[in-house]
Amino acid sequence: MPIRIHLSEWLGKKKWTQKQLAEITGIRPATISALYHEDVKRIEIEQMYALCKAFECQVGDLFEYIPDQKK
């Protein structure tokens, strides 16, 4: 996937579990799990807002664009 999600790193920094993050943000635990495992097709703006608010970070701190490696 060309977008890397740094949720696991942020959870580690805060020493939070996925369950704690779900409670803090109001995002469903299944969605948090999908983000953690980078297995999502889309994310809502409200979810990005809730994550950035919880981690006190910018969107670019959570998501990284990985360009295609063309030969």
UniProtKB/TrEMBL annotation:
Domain of life the protein comes from: Bacteria
Gene3D superfamilies reported in the protein's UniProt record: lambda repressor-like DNA-binding domains
PROSITE patterns: HTH_CROC1 (PS50943)
Molecular functions per Gene Ontology: DNA binding
Domain HTH cro/C1-type span(s) in chain numbering: 7-62
One Pfam family matching this protein: HTH_26
Protein name: XRE family transcriptional regulator
Record organism: Niallia nealsonii
